[in-house]
Amino acid sequence: MKFIKSRVFTFLFLILLAFAIPSIAQNCNNADECKKLISEYEQKLAGLGEQRKSLSSQIQFMDTQIYLTTLRIQETEQLIVQTQNEIENLAGKIEGLNTSLDYLSQLLVRKIAESYKRREIPFFNIFVDSDNAQVLANRLKYARVTQENDRRVAFQVQQAKLNFEQQKSLREQKQAELAELETKLEAQKSDLDSQKANKQKLLAQTQSDERTYQALLNRTRAEFAAIQGIIAGAGTESQLREVKKGDFIASVISTASCNSSGEHLHFTVLEGGGVVNPFSKLHDIDHVDRSGGDPWNPNGSWDWPLSPTISFNQGFGVTSCVSSGYCSGIYSSHNGIDIAGSSLNVTAVADGTLYRGSYAVGCSLPYARVKHKDSNIDTLYLHVYVN
């Protein structure tokens, strides 16, 4: 009976979700309409962000966020089409200007050649060969008109050349804008994929059950509070021994444990007492992305505390969990990385002193600390049995 009731509840809950945001079905037809809808749903998202206390409100927030990203994609796609059309129009103008410039240049060359020929006849000869004053006046008038025409052609050539260069410059600018828009579009599509993945991940974790969602939320809050306490040095620690880089120091707990829903290592790096991105210390390695799209950019030299292939569950800083809205109600920045490896063995990433620690927030969260030798760096390894 309880199973049937649970199924009925889940079914009704999903129906409610389907009608939670009835207005999220419209598309924008032009860039201006997109901007208007984006502004409208940004305000809705801000309002929903303050109301996420239940699974239904969290899903509504995620749906609104997904729709908002979809609108931004549509806006960018329309701007891309608009920019492509502008580039095509500019190409036509440039071709026409090029043809005009060729014609005017050839005309100017002929004019210069004619002027050069006229200069071969001395003005005195024109005066002597003239039968009368009227003929002389006509010849002088023709010379002035010809000079004026030559100047006008030269000016037209200069203007055509200037216009040609301006249109080429504008086309180059539009091509650069197009490249930026295409890059922006790829990033927006990646964000959309991450947001959809986070929603599906949340539904899978909670099985659309409100009590499961609240338990998950409370566990995440407790874990964050424990990690903050450990970073601040409030954990209970005992010194064990000196270790070398690569030495076995602990085992990842293979089941759900204190404030952890399953097997994973939370790895944090402290430098001078403050957290730094572990990717700035670790080298690149084979991995499987299970984070929902968090950046993967290791650029250091350390070996990893787990053996590959690494399962990458959450990154450092503003992660997809934060941007999706679920984690942002708990923390604004993730202070380490969540990973799993091909085995449960945890190794030290550098030489130093090993400490066994625990921190109690409703339950006891076990961890290891390695104080690196001749350095102001500590590394923390959470959700482990320390050996």
From TrEMBL:
Asked if the record carries the keyword Signal, the reply is yes
Q: Domain of life here?
A: Bacteria
Where does the signal peptide begin and end?
1-20
Record key words, sorted: Coiled coil, Signal
Keyword Coiled coil on this protein?
A: yes
Show the InterPro entries listed in the entry: Dup_hybrid_motif
Residues in coiled coil:
31-100, 157-205
Record's protein name = Peptidase M23 domain-containing protein
